[in-house]
């Protein structure tokens, strides 16, 4: 198959984001380039629109404030740093728009709980719901009922099955999950000096963005690093993602004693991989992942297992989602898919990365771990 450049062409990035690149002697150049583009397509193959293009004028903000609108935030899961940052960004921007947040719910990754949350919230007749579906099929009817009742829907990452942008929902906002998967592959290769056996702990669910990460990581390793071999894969379903990942990683390490690295699909499963590596006495194991949670940040800061990751920008995503809800209140045309570029983070860039992700300084625990 003909090899392509890192940034590729529109055809290369079409639909499934089939990313392919030549072998790169210097992963750093590839990581820098990722921050200048977006490799992901939307859930229906939409081209990404830049987050910076989603704006509200002072006049538009005044109109929204006069509406006394209400909103609800319906999460798939609330117990991680990513979710808390999304909610913070949403609440901050909604406050600036004069939109009252009626409720913030946590489905615990259970579709039936999220359906119940939606039904309970709809009794309060919110003007806006911002949400991330736990399961695009199992929750579709509940979201459709909300849309049919006139509530404006803005989604994070995932879209219910059969939904059409501009008709059933306003827009979907996401990080460049494909790009972050690519970043985590280059970071793994850099830490391993381009060679060795590795394993993968992936998300065994119908979840658009986690599949993008998995596909991107595998494609980049296969195309760019022929001396790195993926020799084992284990899927996890949750809701105990850390515990499930620890079991999966333990199985990988037991069956493949020569393995040098394990990739985890996001930071909470990565915490489970860290635990498995400690139990196995594998202090040399390299871990890369997606999402900058505090625990993986501390591991990086201490020079531990986690050598790098691709970070989302959840606070900024929450701000954009609230603004898109404002578009709907104004009847302003919104882009179908908005994406924020990938952000590779290593120990050397940890403090700047944390501020970019959360719009605040790193925690004292992280600073202490860095020796500050």
Q: How would you portray this structure in words?
A:
The chain is of the alpha/beta class and 372 residues long. The protein folds into two domains: 27-42 and 176-312 and 344-369, 3-Layer(aba) Sandwich (Rossmann fold), CATH 3.40.50; 49-174 and 314-340, Rossmann fold (3-Layer(aba) Sandwich). 42% of the residues lie in helices and 18% in strands. The chain has helices at 27-34, 58-67, 81-97, 111-122, 140-148, 177-191, 208-224, 241-255, 267-279, 294-301, 314-330, 350-358, 364-369, and strands spanning 49-50, 70-75, 100-106, 128-131, 152-156, 171-175, 196-203, 228-236, 261-264, 286-290, 306-311, 337-340, 343-345. The strands form two sheets. It has a seven-stranded parallel β-sheet with strand order 1-12-6-5-4-2-3, sandwiched between helices. Helix 9 (267-279) links the parallel strand 9 and strand 10 (286-290). Mean pLDDT is 92; it is low at 1-24.
Keywords:
seven-stranded parallel beta sheet, 2 domains, disordered N terminus, Rossmann fold, 372 residues
List the helices and strands and how they pair.
Layout: H1 27-34, E1 49-50, H2 58-67, E2 70-75, H3 81-97, E3 100-106, H4 111-122, E4 128-131, H5 140-148, E5 152-156, E6 171-175, H6 177-191, E7 196-203, H7 208-224, E8 228-236, H8 241-255, E9 261-264, H9 267-279, E10 286-290, H10 294-301, E11 306-311, H11 314-330, E12 337-340, E13 343-345, H12 350-358, H13 364-369
Parallel strand pairs: 1-12, 2-3, 2-4, 4-5, 5-6, 6-12, 7-8, 7-9, 9-10, 10-11
Antiparallel strand pairs: 11-13
């Amino acid at each position: 198959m003909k090899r392509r450049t890192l940034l590729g062409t529109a055809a290369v990035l079409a639909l499934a984001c089939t990313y392919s690149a030549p072998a790169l002697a210097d992963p750093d150049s590839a990581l820098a380039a990722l921050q200048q583009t977006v490799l992901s397509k939307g859930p229906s193959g939409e081209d990404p629109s830049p987050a910076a293009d989603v704006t509200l004028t002072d006049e538009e903000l005044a109109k929204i404030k006069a509406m006394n609108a209400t909103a609800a935030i319906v999460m798939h899961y609330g117990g991680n740093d990513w979710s808390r940052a999304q909610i913070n960004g949403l609440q901050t921007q909604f406050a600036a728009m004069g939109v009252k947040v009626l409720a913030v719910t946590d489905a615990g990754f259970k579709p039936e709980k999220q359906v119940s949350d939606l039904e309970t919230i709809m009794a309060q007749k919110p003007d806006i719901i911002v949400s991330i579906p736990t399961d695009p099929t199992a929750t579709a009817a509940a979201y459709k009922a909300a849309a049919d009742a006139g509530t404006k829907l803005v989604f994070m990452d995932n879209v219910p099955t059969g939904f059409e942008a501009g008709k059933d929902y306003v827009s979907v906002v996401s990080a460049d999950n494909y790009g972050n998967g690519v970043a985590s592959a280059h970071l793994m290769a850099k830490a391993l000096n381009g060679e060795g056996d590795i394993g993968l702990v992936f998300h065994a669910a119908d979840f658009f963005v986690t599949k993008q990460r998995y596909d991107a990581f595998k494609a980049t390793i296969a195309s760019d690093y022929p001396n790195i071999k993926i020799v084992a894969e284990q899927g996890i379903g949750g809701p105990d993602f850390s515990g499930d990942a620890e079991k999966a990683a333990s199985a990988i390490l037991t069956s493949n004693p020569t393995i040098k690295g394990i990739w985890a699909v996001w930071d909470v499963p990565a915490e489970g991989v860290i635990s498995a590596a400690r139990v196995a006495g594998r202090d040399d194991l390299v871990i890369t992942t997606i999402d900058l949670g505090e625990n993986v940040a501390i591991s990086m800061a201490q020079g531990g297992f986690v050598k790098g990751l691709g970070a989302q920008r959840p606070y900024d995503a929450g701000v954009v989602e609230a603004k898109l809800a404002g578009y709907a209140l104004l009847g302003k045309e919104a882009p179908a898919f908005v994406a924020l570029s990938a952000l590779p983070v290593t120990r050397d860039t940890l403090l700047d990365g944390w501020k970019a992700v959360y719009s605040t300084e790193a925690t004292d625990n992280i600073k202490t771990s860095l020796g500050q």
